[in-house]
Design goal:
The structure is a single chain. By secondary structure, this protein is α+β, with helices and mostly antiparallel strands. It is built from 10 helices and 19 strands. Strands 5, 6, 12, 13, 14, 15, 16, 17 and 19 form a 9-stranded mixed beta sheet that branches. Strands 1, 2, 8, 9, 10, 11 and 18 form a 7-stranded mixed beta sheet that branches. It has a 3-stranded antiparallel beta sheet with strand order 3-7-4. 45% of the residues are buried.
Length: 379
Amino acid sequence: MMHTDVDIAICGAGPVGLVLAGLLVQRGMAPERIALVDAKTAVQSAADPRSIALSYGSRQILEQVGAWPVAAQAISQIHVSRRGHFGRTLLDRADYDLPALGYVTRYGALVAALTAATTQAGIAVRRPLQVSTTQEQAGHVTLQFDDGSSCTSAVLIQAEGGVFAQQPARTLHRDYQQSAIVTHVTTSAPLMQRAFERFTSEGPLALLPQDDGYAVVWCAQTATAARLVALDDAAFLVELEALFGGRVGRFLDCKPRFVYPLGLNAHVAPTARTIAIGNAAQTLHPVAGQGLNLGLRDAMVLARLLASDVSPAALTAFHAQRSRDRGMTIRVTDAMARVFASAPEGTLTQGLLGLSLGLMDAVAPARKVLAQQMMYGQR
């Protein structure tokens, strides 16, 4: 076996890459045998203001690497409804004897907590550093960096993801012709531990409790999103309130709005010595907030396998063990993204979708299945 500079190279020091590195050291791997690289500076990553939803299962993973608690708002209830139709589902943490169903935090705060935890564990992040090329050979992978340096590793983990982009070479690619408007709003009567997922004819609208108001993820057809983001704040809030209703009172103000294209990219098959995890493997629709949580479960399973066997066999085993959870999450989020926005208002399909939410709320086992998938996935 060829001697390599490191055993494991991880491209991407976001939450998924950092968790993987932390779990590997916790399981006995020497920190100096891990090369963790990222294109951003630590200051840039810590300043990222994006709001993210963490499941309770993700909190458990973060606890394992010493990155919890992190500044976050607990979610005690999740209210799921269909605009204009009878029927809703309410998930409550009390039904599962948990302190919370999930949490809302900011990407930068999470990365800062994880960076501190991995630094304490002796893991150094090489940043800012970009990978120029990678070359996989029989016994190792060679990474060439933009500063002229290089590194050889037994395996390469691609953990640097991003937003949805046109990548037709992916195994599964779907453009929903939707965009997400992301902002933060305040309301006159907030319910500060209740998150909302409201399905509309153009896509889901999520309100996640954060600070003194809500982080908003409003999914709509791309043309609609462009029109909405061009409105002034007052007009935007009027349309938001008309769509969401009065459950949290009047919408008072909003912060700057950002727009992101939405779609599905999935490419999960490994090569002999390279595998992708998190958003590098699958970029999902934000419905139900499952993308990051799925990636953290990727990291947990991969760390367990690589800690005892840094070889192509471990990557093959990872692919097999993660196929069920990945496949289930991809199918569920894809179906929700398409079906809830595929039928015009007033159609039988939309009525049945609303009815299904009402039936789920009335049948405790059905609610439990939904809650289990959202909190833990398939481990």
